Amino acid sequence: MSPISRGFHRRHQEEEPAGRVPPGQYVTHDFPVLSAGPTPHTPLSNWTFSIEGAQSPASWTWEEFQALPHETVTVDIHCVTRWSKLDTVWTGVSLDVLLDAVSYTAPYVLAFCDGGYTTNLPVADLTGGKAWVAYNYDGNPLQSEHGGPARLLVPHLYFWKSAKWVRGLRLRDTDVPGFWEMYGYNMYGDPWREQRYAGD
Amino acid sequence: MAGTAVRGRLTWQTATVGAVMDETPSVRTISLSVPDWPGHQAGQHLDVRLTADDGYRAERSYSIASAPGEPVAITVERLDEGEVSPYLTQDLQPGDEMEIRGPIGGYFVWDPTGSDGAAPLLLAAGGSGVVPLRAMLRHRSRIGSSVPVRLLYSARSLADVIYRSELDHEADGVQVIYTLTRQQPPGWTGYARRVDQQMMAEVAWPVASPAPLAYVCGPTNFVEAAAADLVALGYPPQRVKTERFGATGTP
């Protein structure tokens, strides 16, 4: 039984759209930035996206990546720091396209990024039209502080799983914690089950 | 990347409000009595959950303002359009109860017992971003550390400086450098502009042995600029730890 906070009331009567805001979240119209270190700036001429750990690894340069089939999606995103942003518009390459280029059996990936950031995900959460490597936001090239030139977009999980400055995926037979997961954040991160921290 | 992982389930517990202290007209420090607090590191944060009498709940995260070993305290800046911060800074009274859980976060922490424990510290704060850095300063003071520290603190005016009396009496080895971006008192000779690379070059420890460690906390624009300035001065990115407050990231 939670104690009542005497005198505390809901201040924003604006109703959130039903079924779109997970528990403990509030809707923001800004696009807050959260990162653990300085924003890296990798020249596009040095940029590649790689899939490692497959029987046949794959790698794309920026130009090759831009030539892949891409799609524009409108999704809701949910940050573990409690903001949600509805109807965000991204353009990028589906992970289905990328993973179809390699043969693998591993059930997990560790995404790796410029700046040393990593995050772990089950492959099943990346396939089936649920995840992208996005390079446009709202019709414009993705800004570096928001993860440009390209970031992972896995909107059905908390947004730290949508790794900024992503440079590739390492396929793995076992699930190992990434950067925030090592610091006590949840290994999976389902916002609808409020899996913010280890043990949630 | 080695750090102190938070392991095990974080459970909500009831905290009782002790002293409240107004730091500035819009910022208040709230001391909390938490019977089963597991302890924290300087730089960590906690979650607050408020429950209204109609069952409505709101949760927010706040940096811990107190040093390890001190009673838990948070310092909250009022955002007038916010839902939680006006309540915490205006309505809350000693004796009131709220729920908290934590501590959370293990990266933006200063651990003087770690392998980097002797590194000179460069702390850069924008506005209420000073809160976790103040926990580091208090920790340093409490353990009698002699690690040299420079704090570059960007505030709108002197009246907006949080913990001013404490910062003006900091211990040996701690230098506090203010930049007042909007309003300066008569005769002010200090910085009066947003942090830029020249200012950072004048304030930051040179990149030398022993290699300094930087902690940067504040609004996104401040952190982006300060962290980029440090990298441009030669600080390795992995020695610049950041914590950004989004526009509505910490209401």
List the helices and strands and how they pair.
The complex is a heterodimer of chains A (200) and B (251).
Chain A: E1 26-27, E2 48-52, E3 58-61, H1 62-66, E4 71-78, E5 83-94, H2 95-99, E6 108-113, E7 118-122, E8 132-137, E9 140-141, E10 151-153, E11 166-172, H3 179-182
Parallel strand pairs in A: 1-5, 2-11
Antiparallel strand pairs in A: 2-3, 4-5, 5-8, 6-7, 6-11, 8-9, 8-10
Chain B: E1 13-24, E2 27-33, E3 45-51, E4 57-63, E5 73-77, H1 85-91, E6 97-104, E7 121-126, H2 130-143, E8 149-155, H3 164-168, E9 174-180, H4 197-203, E10 213-219, H5 220-232, E11 240-245
Parallel strand pairs in B: 7-8, 7-10, 8-9, 10-11
Antiparallel strand pairs in B: 1-2, 1-6, 2-5, 3-4, 3-6
Count of the separate structural domains of chain A: 1
Q: Work out the helix count of chain A.
A: 3
Order of helices and strands of chain A: EEEHEEHEEEEEEH
User: Which structural class should the secondary elements of chain B be placed in?
Assistant: alpha/beta
| Computed structural class of chain A | mainly beta
CATH structural fold name of chain A: Sulfite Oxidase, Chain A, domain 2
* Spans of at least 5 consecutive residues with low confidence of chain A: none
Number of domains of chain B: 2
- The first-level CATH class of chain A is given as Alpha Beta
Indicate the mean pLDDT of chain A: 94
Helix content of chain A: under 10%
Kindly report the spatial arrangement of strands forming the biggest sheet of chain B.
4-3-6-1-2-5
Give the N-terminus to C-terminus distance of chain A in angstroms. 18 Å
Count the E strands of chain B. Answer: 11
Mean pLDDT of chain B: 92
Number of strands of chain A: 11
